Amino acid sequence: MTRKEGRAISHPNIALVKYWGKKDIEMNISSNMSVSLTLKNLETVTVVSPSEEKRDIFILNGHERPMKERMIKVIQLFKKRAGDVSYIKIDSKNNFPDSCGLASSASGFSALVKALNNFYDLNISTPELTEIARYGSGSSSRSIYDGFVCLDGVKSFKVSDWDDVKVFVILLEDTEKKVSSTEGMIRCAKTSNLYNLRLKYINYKAQEAMEYIKNKDFTNLAVLTMKEANEIHAIFMDSYPPIWYLNGRSFEVIDKVFELNSKSIKAAYTFDTGPNPFILTLRKDFEEIFNHFKNLGFKVIEAL
C-alpha cells in the first residue's frame, strides 16, 4: 500500500503552573498537574511521507538528526497500530529556535503525533492523541489543544479560551541549554528539598490558576504565574549541582516587569527551561508593554 503524506501544524505552549518531575519515567507521567497557554504565532510544521531509503529518516529545519528513544517509541506505536512497518521520512520545520527554552519539544512531538495520525489515517480521537503525545514529551500533550490547557499527568484537556491574553517572548539566547529538562527533573527529585515540599501543594495551585482563567481574573493569574516562575527556578538552584537556566538579563527583565506593575498589574513574566522570558499581558496593554521592551533594545517576538 502506497501512502500519501501526512501533514500537521502544532504550536509550543508556555506553562503557567509547571510540571517538574515524573511519577512514572517509563510512561512519562508527570508528578503533578500543569496549566499552560498555547502560543499560536510560533509553529512547527511536520510532514510524514514514505521513506525512499531502507530506514526511517528525521529531518529538522533542513538537517538530518538522529532519532531519540522517545521519538522512536512514538513512531513504533503508530506503526503497530496501523499494521504498517514500512520506513518513513519525517520532515519538521520550526519558525523559532529549538532547544533553548522555547518549548520546541512540545510543538515538535504534538505535530509529529498529529502528522502520524494523518499519515496512517487512524482517526485517533483528540483526547487519546494527548496521551500518545505524552510518551514523547509531557508538555507536548498540552500542545494538542489551543488556548489554556491542563495536563492532569496522564492526559490533557482544554480549560478555556481567553482571547484578550497576549504573549511575547524576549529572546536573550538561542543556544541549546546545557541541562535537558529530563535530566533536570531527575536531579531536582534526587537532591532538592524544595522539590519535595512543592509536591504537597502544587495541584491546588493548578486548580487555583484554572479558576482565575475561567473567571478572566488577570491580576491574580499574573501574580500566581510570576510566583510560580520564581519558585520553580529556586528549585533548579536548590538542586545539586545547581541548575542555572536564567542569566543576568533574565533578572533584568524581571525587574523591568515589576517597574511596569508599580501602580497596577499590567504584565507577568514566566520562563521555560531557559533564560528567555515569556511576557503575558492583556490585549489593551500589549502594544505599550511590547514596545517598552523593544525600545530598551531587547529582541521581542510576538508569540500569541
From TrEMBL:
Domain Mvd1 C-terminal: 167-295
Entry GO terms, CC: cytosol
Keyword Chloroplast: no
Gene3D superfamilies documented for this protein: 3.30.230.10, GHMP kinase, C-terminal domain
UniProt GO molecular function: ATP binding; diphosphomevalonate decarboxylase activity
Top EC class of this enzyme: lyase
Enzymatic reactions: (R)-5-diphosphomevalonate + ATP = isopentenyl diphosphate + ADP + phosphate + CO2
Any one GO BP annotation for this protein: sterol biosynthetic process
Keywords, alphabetical: ATP-binding, Lipid biosynthesis, Lipid metabolism, Lyase, Nucleotide-binding, Steroid biosynthesis, Steroid metabolism, Sterol biosynthesis, Sterol metabolism
The protein's annotated pathway: Isoprenoid biosynthesis; isopentenyl diphosphate biosynthesis via mevalonate pathway; isopentenyl diphosphate from (R)-mevalonate: step 3/3
Domain (Diphosphomevalonate decarboxylase-like N-terminal): residue spans on this chain: 10-151
Annotated EC: 4.1.1.33
Family, similarity comment: Belongs to the diphosphomevalonate decarboxylase family.
Name this protein carries in UniProt: Diphosphomevalonate decarboxylase
Annotated organism of origin: Hamiltosporidium tvaerminnensis
